[in-house]
């Protein structure tokens, strides 16, 4: 007897306010050129942007906004690669 397939229900998950705020922050970071700014300017920009996001997403509490901030700060930091082992460069 062949298994009958259940009709696939096309359910789309609605992003949470946290997800929307995180994605919006990442988008702003990429559009505004914050990645090239020095740390002091990044901090000032991030402070202003987080204030904006707090007003835009009033259902997020301080802890959630803090988590979004941490993700944004990490997103702005370059990847640190291990230093090359001395003598590993082939010439």
Please name the defining characteristics of this protein.
91 residues; mainly alpha; extended
Give a quick precis of the structure.
With 91 residues, this protein is mainly alpha-helical.
Explain this structure to me?
- This protein is an all-alpha fold and 91 residues long.
- The chain has a domain at 17-76.
- It has helices at residues 17-32, 39-56, 62-76.
- α1 runs parallel beside α3 (62-76) and α2 (39-56) runs antiparallel to α3 (62-76).
- The longest helix is centred in the middle third of the chain and has 18 residues, at 39-56.
- It starts with 16 loop residues before the first helix and ends in a 15-residue tail after the last helix.
Question: What's the pLDDT, averaged over the residues?
Answer: 85
Outline: extended
- The first-to-last residue Cα distance is 66 Å
Q: Helix-strand pattern, N to C?
A: HHH
Q: Radius of gyration, Cα only, in angstroms?
A: 21 Å
How many H/I helical runs? 3
Q: State the assembly state of the protein chains.
A: single chain
Stretches with pLDDT under 50, minimum 5 residues: none
Helix-strand makeup class: mainly alpha
How many strands in all?
0
Largest sheet geometry:
none
């Amino acid at each position: 007897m062949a298994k009958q397939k259940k009709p696939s229900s096309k359910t789309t998950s609605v992003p949470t306010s946290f997800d929307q705020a995180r994605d919006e922050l990442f988008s702003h970071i990429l559009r505004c050129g914050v990645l090239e700014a020095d740390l002091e300017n990044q901090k000032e920009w991030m402070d202003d942007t987080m204030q904006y996001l707090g007003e835009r997403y009033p259902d997020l509490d301080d802890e959630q906004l803090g988590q979004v901030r941490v993700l944004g700060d990490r997103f702005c930091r370059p990847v640190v690669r291990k230093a090359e082992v001395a003598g590993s460069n082939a010439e």
